[in-house]
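Form 7-S
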Amino acid sequence: MASFGRDLWDKFELVSRVASDKLKNCEDLIKIITERANVEESYVKSLEKILTSYLPSTPVTGTYGNISGILREYLRDRADQSRQLVYSMRADVIEQLNRLFKHQTNDTKSLSSAGKKLEKELKFLLEKLVQAKQKYLKTAREYEGATIVAESAKLNSEVTANRKSSLASKLIATAREHEEAEREYRQSIIDYNTFLDRYNREIREILDYFQRLEKERAKAMQDSLFKLSVHESVFTKTTALNVDKVQKRSETIDSSVEIEDFVKEHKTTREFYTKAIFEAHNSFIYASIDRQKALFVENRAHEAILESFKPFYEKFIEAKDLANAPKITDFLRPDSPAHRDDIHRAQRLAFIVHKAWTGDTELSPDELMDFERIVREEFGRKLWTFSFQQYRIAGKFVVNELGYKGLVSLLLIVLNEAMRSRDATTAKKLMVLALTFYKTDPREKEGKVYLHAEIVSHPLWKASDLWESAILDSLREEFANQRAYNLDSGECLEEAIIREKNIVFGQLGSFAFNMLMFEFDAQEVKNLISKFCKHFTLSEPLIKELMSNIEQSHRGLARKRSPDPRAHNDIRQPQQKQPEFISFVTSSLRSMLGSEEHERRPPIKVVPPPKPVETIKAEGFVDPLTAPLDELPELSPKKST
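Output:
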């Protein structure tokens, strides 16, 4: 059965307005019946005037007397009947409708006032919740920005201690503001949810009470019409037909049909209001900050476990028959930190990766689901990267067509999980591996199609905070590697600054090209690189050189992707002959593999110049725009799958 409280819970204003309109209808009915009684009362007075003026009580004999007597008795009876009709209409219909109207008017006003108050309070708390959420998100982004600036300052020896202290204080203040905003956000959720329980209960009670008033009013109006028809039928037989019609019509009136039609016409399609929940800020940068805070010990444990698996993987990738492939337990030392679950996952993952790699048979749906479950956890993604790296270290770069298809499926699964968990570290290593392995294709210029061609359109690469987090993490790793080589031993401040700028310049140049390779917007690349140039106070000549390299790389990539020469020119630059495009520099990508590369890079030799430095480049850095073409591998353009 239709219910205002259940089916029209969010239509309070509509129900209140319709209730007011229906009350006016009831008032109009009272006026109509009152006027009808007044007309009948005037009719009585007219009949009495006729009796007094033309039909005195003095008997008249003759034909006229008989007629007048008959008329006198008829008119007297008619007057008495009309008087009784007036009394019945006023006592039995009008007075009852007036009492109902007065009672329902007061109830409707009270219900409307209470409902409006509830709606107003709900709107106020919802606005307060929205404002608190916006403030929370704003402080979260400010906290991210302050963290990046402070972390960059820690890594930058050029920044003074006072400046670092000031940035640290600002970071603490920003963190406090963020915590206070989060507290306010959580409290506003509690206030809103608490009131929402009351609102849902009371608004339904109000709407159900409106429904009861509607039923009561409709029934009273229906009964009034029925009573009026009865009194009218008793009053005069000459109007019996019309009264009978009205009576029959009144008997066919069903107030429930009107209610059902009203609900059917205005029934809501919306779900009930749901309670608000805390929505934590989620980004690659935020996730990276959390990992830096909480996962240091866990990361060290993961590295130890992976190192203990290395002998097994080195042997497993040479297996020809998976049915007789080595078991990981045969290679583990007694002091291995790996747990039983880690060993089981490593064995299953090695089997799946090697099956995809060999390309003898397709991966089954169950194997893909099993792989997805493994890489859903951070250690699983580290395990997969480590496993994949062994083929790279062993120089196994080429796969067949079926192997290519299988590896692409695994890559896309890992990309999805990296996107879901905001794992910039895994994404960064995926980028390198996708530009390492390939299948042969004689239709291509260089006869190669890299895995990069199948994953470049993934939405993960379009997230600016991914690249920002990856750059910051890579700079942390590079500075840590420098300290591991003791390159900062015995150097003066000027030498330290030169070495640091060598690192920053090389990393930013490499990442700028990587972003363009993965079709990140060129203007966004400039903005992001400029941001880190400012953090590390690179000189204007270095910044200009980076921007120029980005422009040239962007035009070269555009020329490779599109045959239309008009698409290669940046509209902000004058038309000029474009230099031959140089494909991606593999050596600049190796720096992003971190400790899992297993190959020590030569230290950067720092020689302080006798005068201010205009252009600083790391030793061993290969500029993709000036290196000889025959030294660089050619990448195939993206092919549709």
